Amino acid sequence: MTIRVTLDRVLLERRMSLTELSERVGVTLANLSILKTGKAKAIRFSTLEALCRELNCQPGDLLVFDTEDEEGAGRVAAE
Q1: Which of 4, 38, 36, 39 is nearest to 17 (CA)?
Q2: Sheet (strand 63-68) strand order
Q3: Which of 5, 8, 28, 43 has CA 20 to 30 A from 58's CA?
Q4: Dihedral (CA of 73, 2, 23, 30) sign
Q5: How many angstroms separate the CA atoms of 78 and 44, rounded?
Q6: Contact predicate 75/68, CB 8 Å
Q7: Are 34 and 40 in contact (CB under 8 A)?
Q8: 70 alpha-carbon distance from chain centroid
Q9: C-alpha distances out from residue 48 to 13, 68, 74, Å
Q10: Which pTM was predicted?
């Protein structure tokens, strides 16, 4: 089981680049890249709030809980 970040999908839907988002929320491009690629181990609520404000979305639009089926393949529980 894991939490998956769908920032890339939301950015695509908003037609916004990671660089533009970085400038708007005041988070470094490197940190947003870590978040976008799923390498982040945590996110501050203040960062999540800033992302939601700039992307006009809810936290659930950026974070998805994945479960694994019996064969070990990832399956999205709610999307």
Answers
A1: 36
A2: 2-5, 63-68, 74-76
A3: 28
A4: negative
A5: 23
A6: yes
A7: yes
A8: 26
A9: 18, 25, 24
A10: 0.81
Is the distance from CB of 62 to CB of 5 less than 8 angstroms? yes
pLDDT tens for the chain, 79 residues long, are: 789 999 999 999 999 999 999 999 999 999 999 999 999 999 999 999 999 999 999 999 999 998 874 345 544 544 4
| Alpha carbon distance 16, 5 (integer Å) | 16
**Pairing, β 63-68 against β 2-5:** antiparallel
Residues in Cβ contact with 1 at an 8 Å cutoff, skipping those fewer than 6 apart: 65, 66, 67, 68
DSSP 8-state assignment for residue 78: -
Please enumerate in sequence order all residues whose Cβ is within 8 A of that of 58, keeping only pairs 6 or more positions apart, or say none.
Answer: 52
